[in-house]
Amino acid sequence: MLNILSSFARKTALVTFCALIASTTAWSLTGIKVNDLGPNRQQAITALMVVKRLEQLHYNHQRLDDTLSATILDRYLNDLDPAHSYFLASDIKEFEKYRFEMDDALVNGNLSPAFAIFNRYQHRMVDRLAYLDVLLNREFDQWQYTTNDTVEADRKQAPWPANQSEWDDLWRKRLMYTALNMKLTGKSPAKIKKTLERRYKSQLTRALQVNSDDAFQIFLNSVTQTYDPHTQYLSQKVSENFNINMSLQLEGIGAVLQAEDEYTKIQSLVTGGPADRSKLLHPADRIVGVAQEGDKDVVDVVGWRLDEVVERIRGKKGTKVTLQIIPAGSSNEHETKLVTITRDQVKLEDRAAQSTIIETKHDGKAYKIGVINVPAFYLDFQCTQHDEANCRSTTRDVAALINKLKKQNIDGLIIDLRNNGGGALQEANSLVGLFIERGPTVQIRSSGGKIDTMLDTDPRVAYTGPLAVVVNRLSASASEIFAGAIQDYRRGVIVGERTFGKGTVQSMQQLDQGQLKITLAKFYRISGDTNQNKGVSPDIAMPSLLDHEELGESALFNALPADTIRPAHYDKDRGLEAAIPLLRENAEQRIRANPDFMYLNEQVKLLDEARAAKTVSLNEKTREAEQTKLDSQRLKLENDRRKGKHETPFKTVADMKKAAEKDEADALTDHGAIKVDFVLDEASNIVSDVISSTASMNSRVASH
């Protein structure tokens, strides 16, 4: 919830520590010497190359002018200090002289303004870390947490501190907030003090090891991401890590991590990886501690650089790592839990599609609804170079599963794309082809305006029966292309929630030093609409705990907008299109009466209340009362759900938490099988509705 300490950690992702550049200026506070950094010739050359390619190749063809200069300055200041807590208002006023000069400096290879701002940031950060050390040694032992003071929950829009007194008061409250959170978890004052002293000393050490390359990468990414959030400069070291990750040569937990303020946050889970299979970690979980197998204590990693946290999580296959996390959506930052994951490599077979059958009754009739879970759009690229006919791919695996299900006489089919972040574009195209005779599947518009259309030219259809596609906010890219095409053709019903909204194409451009990942094109649906920024809207919506304000393309800074192009030529199923309103009405009635969905809706309300809070109390008794109230609300919601399902209610909060821990333990041993949850149950009801409506329509046609 709070974003304050060591925001620098977010910016120095995957950069090795190097010796400090020789300084021209030295500055000290309480004996701490901070060296000013300066740019080198190679950085100036790289900046010129990046600027040139952005202007020539980026999809938007945006000119580097005074307007963009102002945006770059604002972006850079907020990248360095997102919580508006390190810089003073006087610093920001001083930096205004650069507002319309960043563009001129960049085109001349002049990085002095960028480094002047960065050096001021470094001085301010060291000053604050030294101040925290003073507070811990002079005031901490006297704190009783009986104050009525509060801290702001989110300072992204707050003004920078106006003076020293306001600055000190802000940081004193933030330290009290951190200490109180730890106290509420049961830690003793001595343990809290020791942990925080170690944390801030570690942050100070890292701050003093920052080098010119670190500063350069932060600034250049502030420049690239004023074009769009997926355009990024990767330094030489970051490029090496990127290439290793793409080739899957490293073993770990299978999670994509990002730094956000002082935390390491899970951006996404690698489909089929250890974290994904465990069901214990989720996107937006924040990692606050790491312990290796056999360690007695969890190492606090708040404020660490992202590359260092990644190195602690990586390890040999078969070994275990324990993460202390703040779960996504947690209303309090002191609500942490420990999760142990066994490291492994991500194998193609772990990402493969799987199937099952749901047997359901609808209007007095029994139906068998097939379910195919597609966790990724995969293709064995190495195999295709030698034996294209027999290589593993999403389309081949799904086609085989469809044949298997048809032999079991299914009445309808569900394709589950939840949490599918995409993959091979050609697989999205060919998968659509399993459900249509032939025709366009997606349009791609280049930065030059040329529109290419991908086609399914194979007239064979693997499945012609009733179809539903289940999506959620984490269904992205290739998943959205498939879902969008199925929706445009009205070949099936899209069920779930609005998808991620990534409709752009990136390419890696090699530089003398590092690489530039640049957005070159956009995807468009065959209807001419785009998934970019807005995603695929389901025909039948279901509630979700995923926060659309935090996850998805629309949550990213400066995401390219949605627009339209001319539609392609295609035919849609008018019958299904006409049936959608009635299908939606029937589903909404069931959802309103379903105990699981009712529970989910009430959970969403609780989370929305927590997210809406502007401040957090520094009074211990107030916080304890808030937690007790929240626990009681959760217990009531859970018991209402259990009563609705004719299950025995829990007597206490402890009983409820113990059952949740057991469910998590069971999930560790339940690898591989598709778990039919209440979302899939409702999707099977929707497919049954489609079967009934189709039968009714055929009956009316026959009677005429």
What structural class results from the helix and strand content?
alpha+beta
Q: Examine the coordinates and then state which fold CATH places here, giving the name of the CATH topology of the largest domain.
A: 2-enoyl-CoA Hydratase, Chain A, domain 1
Number of helical segments?
A: 20
Identify low-pLDDT runs. Answer: 1-29, 242-250, 699-704
CATH architecture group name of the largest domain: Alpha-Beta Complex
Main pleated sheet:
6 strands, antiparallel
Task: Let me know the number of strands.
Answer: 21
Integer-rounded radius of gyration: 27 Å
Strand content: 15-25%
The mean pLDDT is 87
The CATH fourth-level homologous superfamily of the largest domain:
2-enoyl-CoA Hydratase, Chain A, domain 1
How many independent structural domains?
Answer: 4
**What is the first-to-last residue Cα distance?**
63 Å
Shape: globular
Helical proportion, percent range: 40-55%
What CATH first level of the largest domain would be assigned?
A: Alpha Beta
